[in-house]
Amino acid sequence: MTTLSFCLVVFVLLFILASVHAHSYPKFSRNDTEFQHLVLHPNPAVGTVYLGARNHLFQLDGLDGLRLEQEETTGPVSDNKECLPPVIESNCPQARRTSNHNKLLLVDPKALELITCGSVYQGLCQKRSLGSIKEVLFSTESPVDTQYVAANDPSVSTIGLVVRVPGGERTVMYVGRGYTANHPPISTRHLSSKPIFSYEETAKLVIAGRLSEYDHNFVTAFTRHSYVYFLFYRRDIRSVSRDYRTYMARVCLEDTSYYSYVEIPLVCRSPFSPVKYNILQAAQVGQGTGQQGENLLGVFSTRTGSTNSPLDSSALCVFPLDELDKHIDSTRDLCYTQNGLVDGREEVAYIEYEVKSSCASLPLNTLNAYPCGSDHTPSPMASKIPLEAKAVWQTSAARLTAVAVSVREGHSIAFLGDAKGILHKVYLGKNGAVEVYANSTIQPNSPIHSDLLLDDQGSHIYIMTKNTKRPVAECGDHLDCLSCLSARDPYCGWCVLEGRCGQRWECQRGSLQGQWLWSFNQTQQCLSIQRLSLYNISRGEKIALSVEGLPSLQQDEAYSCFFQDTETPALLTTTGVICSTPDASSLPPISQGDVFTMRFNRFALFGVEILILISCSTCIPARCQGCVSSRWGCNWCIHEHVCTHKHTCSQGVTVHNRHQECPCVERIQDSSLLPVNVERKITLVGQHLHLFQVKRKDTTSKNSHNIPVHFGSMLQDIIFFLFKKGENITYVLKEIANYKPKRAMFLLLFVLLCNHPINPILSFSLSSIVSVTLFNCSVGRSDCSRCRTADPKYGCVWCGGASSSSCVYRDSCADEIKHTCPAPVIHFLDPLSGPIEGGTVVTISGSNLGQRAEDIESSVTVANVPCTVIHSRYEVSSRQAVCTTPHTLLASSKQRIHFYIYNNFLSSIFPLRGPKAGGSSLTIRGRKLRTGHPSEVGVLIGGVPCTEDQIKCLTRGSNRTGEHSIMVRFGGAERHLQGLVYHYTPNPNITRAAPSKSFLRYGGRIIKVEGHNLDVVQEPKMRVTLSPRIVPEANCPEGTLCMGSEAKGARVKVHFLLDSLHFDFSIVGGETFSYEPNPKLFALNTNDPNKPYHHKPGSIISVEGENLDLAMYKHEVEARIGGGLCVVKTLTHNHLYCEPTAQQPSITTNRKHDGMESLPEFTVKMGNLNFSLGRVQYDIQAQSTFPLEAQVGVGVGASIVALIVLIIVLIYRRKSKQAMRDYKKVQIQLENLETSVRDRCKKEFTDLMTEMMDMSSDLVGSGIPFLDYRAFAERIFFPGHQESPLRRDLDVPESRRQTVEQGLVQLSNLLNSKLFLTKFIHTLEAQRTFSPRDRAYVASLLTVALHGKLEYFTDILKTLLNDLVEQYVAKNPKLMLRRTESVVEKLLTNWMSICLYTFLRESAGESFYMLFRAIKHQVDKGPVDAVTGKAKYTLNDNRLLREDVEYRTLTVPAKVLDCDTITQVKEKVLEQSWKGMSFSQRPHVDSLHLEWRAGVAGHLILSDEDLTSVVQGSWKRLNTLQHYKVPDGATVALVPRSNKHHLHDSHDYMPGEKTPMLDDGEEGGVRLWHLVKASDESELPKHRRGSMREKGGERAKAIPEIYLTRLLSMKGTLQKFVDDLFTAILSTSRPVPLAVKYFFDLLDEQALQHGITDPETIHIWKTNSLPLRFWINILKNPQFIFDVQTSDHVDAVLSVIAQTFMDSCTIADHKLGRDSPINKLLYARDIPRYKQMVERYYADIKQTISASDQEMNSALAELSRNYAAEVNCHVALHELYKYINKYYDQIITALEEDATAQKMQLGYRLQQIAAAVENKVTDL
After folding, report:
1. Do 1491 and 1537 meet the contact criterion of CB atoms below 8 Å apart?
2. Which of 692, 766, 1241, 1533 would suit a FRET pair with 637, their CA atoms being 20 to 30 Å apart?
């Protein structure tokens, strides 16, 4: 055996060579969902992991690598946020497929149940088995609102906590949820008693303020001692900035009413800057930086502004829980005993959530007696002073999202997850030291969920991004001691005797001193060899190793040294050990090296390994320089090319270690170019090259050596002949024949270069390569031109005679070398034609076409005209490009090729117009258009290029319309189309497409498309896209789309393709296109389809089927009986009715048929669907025999009857002629009357518009006199009350005011109880003495009392409305809301008024005010009777002045009538003088005198009655200007009246109906009159005089036509203003008020809920709720919204307009006749148009997006804030209490009879209120 020599090297630091091992951790991932919650089985031995995800639940085996055990699909489901479960199509038509997000995932450890809550079905929960998540243990079947647990919005937070109540077997669930509806933010739910998941009879956090303002974002909840803690953040609405802050809330476990609720703010502050971290991201309880007690560790993020999107800057803060409890206790104590004040001055504690309570001054023993509060203690309490903590660790790299805390071996470690998927391991020292000792990337850029859980042993942590289980420490990754200690992992340490890295409990002797080295202790050091006695030794020698700190062994233990498997004893010394190397005979063969390791009992002692005995041939690189320069004494064999330990090589020269130099090459001498087929010499210049020489005996006396040569793809050995010449070597390369590379190739010689650095890995490098170039002249140079253009360095020449010539190397040419090239040869031209103007680019291809472009510059001519060469496109010899205008081409070879020149032209184009978007296909005709190269032909229309195909092109888009010229370019030539232009039209547009449904199979339904400019479209198409893609059925007819039932669930997209324009059906059609199930038709003869159907002539054929009208209208259905048409009359879902021809049609074919085939077949065609439903046989009755005698009798009788009829006809004709003459006479009169009325209307309208324009200009400065909200509310809520509660102060003695006010505050809190309020209202309505007036008054008082909580007010309104619907459904639902007979109806009126006040001011108010002013102006133009209130110009026939009164217009300076009374004149002058001010700011008319200043005659005070008044009998006439003979242009003035005559000094609103002036003024038997004597009215009762509601005598009297025209004239004049008002009210062009949409949707829901499908009933409900309750009230009373003066004659006109509006809102048609009211006849033609407006208004509202509760509540909250200062509720509450006092016993009885009210102690609370408000003695 060959003896090998070895070298020895010792690597003391082995960890440098240690390989890093990649670990595979248990992992569970799914790409089709999103993980949201994670919980563990309470029994660690089971190890089950439960995952809550979107639409899924997963059960994993945590002990088996997170293996999936079970999966349960929870969604998507059909749901809608606005729908209450159970959600079915009938009660929730708006339901859509909705994903179910897991909102809660909790474990009940006692019951071993898994509680899951989703975001669908209003957040309902289920109980499932922990053993199998598929097993549902409990699910609410008929849930109520108190069982809606989680938030039904995926973005709203929900947390939960399962707690066992102390002292009992009861288990409850605490739930915190963000704002989504009127659900409490914190509540306690039943888990072990019914009703499950409900907070009835438990507790909830009551918020008296706006829920939307307190939008809690819950983070977590936990229990400690006897308390439950909630952590959340929300806006601080008490601060100006309204920034988000983090809060902690605490409540006692035993507190069933949340009396102990206290919340305090938490602040995490940076210790180095003023930065505050406001947003809590995650928190967990554990030991922080000390051992004194438990701490709350939370990760916070900063924020700016008022949004809750956390920024990336984050921090970890530690709050001691004992300090938190102290802070909370201090807040509670201050609020209990010191009114929340510190030192009696600064308020620290207060009552939160706008609850009407306050901190008190209770006895000090209250703290001990009621540590968890009671019903008499204030709550909920809050602190203004936050508890602050300094951040212990901060980062801005990524937002922290999760935290988990572990305490092991007295050390606290926090695991922090961030938004980039990194897990930070943070050591928390006892002295406050904090250090991040490791970062692990779990999943890049995937946030770590806040559910970061440690298992029960604390050895593994569950991380949820996709779900991963990892050990808390990866100690096993560290394979040696240094790696273990340098990791600085608090969990890890080095097990000295076991030689591995692990946790202390994993080491067998970890508790002993020196046996476990803690990784986090920087003073610890690994055992290491401090010193070796020998570093170069041979086998069999001893080596001493100095090792400090060797652990002591037990008695039966000893150290050993191992050389691989060979063991030698280790001798223990005071400083280390001594080991002996084994004998050579005991060693195995060595290849690359061996490891020397000391071991103890087969366990590694310490990480020192000795690498010894390495072979030169395997360990040293195969390079001479590396071999001989190594320290191991290796030698190099030149000819064997190996490194060896031998001193001499078996053959060839040996280069010895460190004694000789290696041969190397410096450069190549002379040229490195090698032509083929030529023998050349190559001389290499270098050093020590003589060592390659080997003496050999051969015939040439030369020495040879084979060297591999590589060039191109050839590898072969080339013989080099070696000559020694000093230090140089010359190689002779033999000829290389038949090698034709595509280009000059490099021949590579692999030799060693001098001074080249040695690469220890590669045997050679590119730097050690010498290259030569091998080339072949003939390759790529097929002709003379290319040969002569070769690089001169190659020496290529054109060699040979005329027959055979080639390009060769100069020395290889055996024939004549040609110095000139042959004549050029042309092969072809492209193109062969061009326009006469020239400019065509022609490509000439051939050979020997010159060596450069200048050679042929003037050699090519066309028709003897030189051609310009394009230099950039010239290629040597093969082709050249020229521009030409010739007829023929001539080269130097005298070769001719024909080139044709055409004078082409354009003749026509079709079509002549198209859309500017382009895409139209054009055809251009002309002569010789195929001229020049096709690529150089271009079509331009108006400068826009056109895509062509043989002069058929597609237009491109243009940026303008109109006419454009057509031009075609042929290279440089242009041709214009003369006399014709192309017209770019506006783009076609589709405005409407219908219908939007079709059948699944075959289709065939015609879609009608409407739009603009559709006639320019050339290829209209319709494209249907189904997602996911549906494969059509086989055997489908061409042109149809056949789809199966699976297409019904597919998403359908339909587009119209108009050339280059695409239109989406869902946009132009207003709804998405859908495919419905195919219709089914059953045979006519259902009993036996093989027999004919017998049809009786004159009757209707009825066909039964299914789905007939889903996607088809009756006019689209074609029914035939044979060749005859059966006209479809009706098409329903299940029936088709058609009317056939009277006679039996013939069959459609000419062939003869027998039996059944002779009968016509009944077929129905619906689109592409054809149905054959059997044959039809007409039943023809046989003629019955009729006796002859009877026939004669019938004939005689018929003759007599005919004679009588003839006589009657003659008489009728005579009478009809007379009637016709009378009719024509009346018709002429009516036409004249109509012309007169029309002319009058035009004139009146022109005058009115002029006046209104003047008034509009006046309004620019002053504006419309709207009432403020307080006055508006007062007049709406309390019409008919002299003093409303909004104006009064609390009328109680001052001594009792404070007590009464406290009682009223308690009453306000009691009204917040929905149960009490509904009981209170129903109890009052049940009392007989509770009149309708009382109902309206109480409803308005409640409106004022609840005005600050409009969300709650709306909720009460919905509840009462539901009760009202149930009441009327049992009777007649159409009568609901018709009158104000209940409290809820008045509440609805007030609610609508509150919500629409802004709409009135901003939208409809202007039109209404213009109408009011137009009416007032038009009425005041004519005489108005001051006593009866009748006017010449009016719309009300009962207020029409029927007598002709002579009058004339005077200007004094206001325009008045000489027949006006003095009071009427004062009103008009006052209006003119004070037109820039509202009515309430003007002086009252009774406070002024009208003074006539007549110049020299002096001043005269004018009045309605004085000594000059005319008295005739018992009648006294009011004085007028005509009475005083005041001329036109006279000067009159208003002067103040003395106080004794001052009747009114203010314009306080006087409720009630306006009465005419002095209507009942009878004094001493004298009756007043103005224009007409009210003789007719004396017969009527006094209360009906001047009434606008007369229906008797006045209507029965005939009105002369001349007076009727006044009504028509007035109506025509006001028509524009009425239309404008109705349009403003009923327009949907602007957003419909949110309240209207919300309430209409509520009515639709109520109808659906109670099974009311009659659209007329729903229409009536909407009409009674909006037009009747609000608009009619406003239209009849403009003083409710404007600060104006109303009068009886203006009110009369408004009442007619209001009645017209009401008639327009009803569905029923009013039949008009001669006895119909004149008011209805006036607008008979307009009401149908107005009805269409109303129906469209209702329909548009229904089609708009539903208003959610959140949107409505937000709007209501805004209203409450805006009008909070306008309403004082104390007086209203006091007035409400009067009704409580009146019906006290009945209310108390009702509350005591209700079990829930008893539990809520509502009766007791009412008794407390009674005692406070009026000292009522109760049973307290």
Report:
1. no
2. 766
